[in-house]
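Entry 14. Ran structure prediction on the chain below.
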Amino acid sequence: MRFPFGRKAARPLTPASPSAGATGPSAVDESFTFRPGDCLNESDCALFPVHSLYDLLDGYRLLGLSWDGACVELDPDNRVECIDLTRQPGGLFGLANGMPEAVMRHLFPSMATVESQFPEQDRADGLIFHQLLLPGENLELLATTRDGGVVRLALARAGYWHDPHRRARELRREQAAAQAMAADQARLEALRAKDTEERENRNRWRSIADTDAMLDAWCAQARPDYRAMGQQLRAAPPAAWLDFAERYSFDEGLAPLFWIIRQPRAEIADIFEIFTMCEPDYFLDPEKQARGASQMTEYELIDEIKARVDAGFYSVSQDFDGVAAWDNGAVGRRNADFMAPVRNTFRRQFSARP
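Output, structure tokens:
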């Protein structure tokens, strides 16, 4: 990668020595126009994308693609501390990313394995670090390997790897990052706890046995204007309950419908209409249930209606032909096997009783 500075280094980089095994006329394979120790002016730094600037504390900063490209570390005076290559095709002194570690060892037998700043973490990541001082250049060559291959190359000023000040900055930066991560995690846990509490509050009405108290609890946490709606529903005669259900949006919540189906004065014909509005052919489909239907409340509503119908819970003020109602009014896959229990519940005659 060539940075568009349009200027050359004070002197070109050269291989450390012929015996080191470096090849080619340029030690950096024509990738850079500067070297560690050079100073970059602000106009040069401004050529880097803004998003690539990374603060390393105490005025040190990183320019470039630090995670998947090439980057340059600068000191507070804009002097180049290190040129870092990550997964780049270019090379340094005959080394290249992707090269087998055995080849690197053959080219530079004297390259030493060094301890990293965070050895436990790096060992867990499978990273091994190597260093070689380049005689006469006041530079050191750094290589990182993983799984037997070179994954990172860097060229730095001499003493860079073991510089205690740099390591202290890295430690402070890691600590700051850990603190920021812990703070983010604490905020996330707080949001989760708040969401859980709100969800429990929204669903608390479902655990209330008293039907009127259940409706009042739901209205209290739903919307302010629902208190009046709940009072009107409780005061309305049974003949008005179906009209309410037909005009009501199920997406608002099903507590009012649970209140209706738990009233023994509700007519079986009206309950049948509410039942079909709940789309049992959709919610009772085993495939939907196996995938985990998000609207399990609808399933519970359907199941409760069926149980109450089987128990003879509802009023039958006049004969109700469940066979004709089911065959003519129910919508869905009525012949499917999973609909048989529902079909048996409603597809029969309901005789009027006092």
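The longest strand covers residues 149-157. Will compare against last week's run tomorrow.
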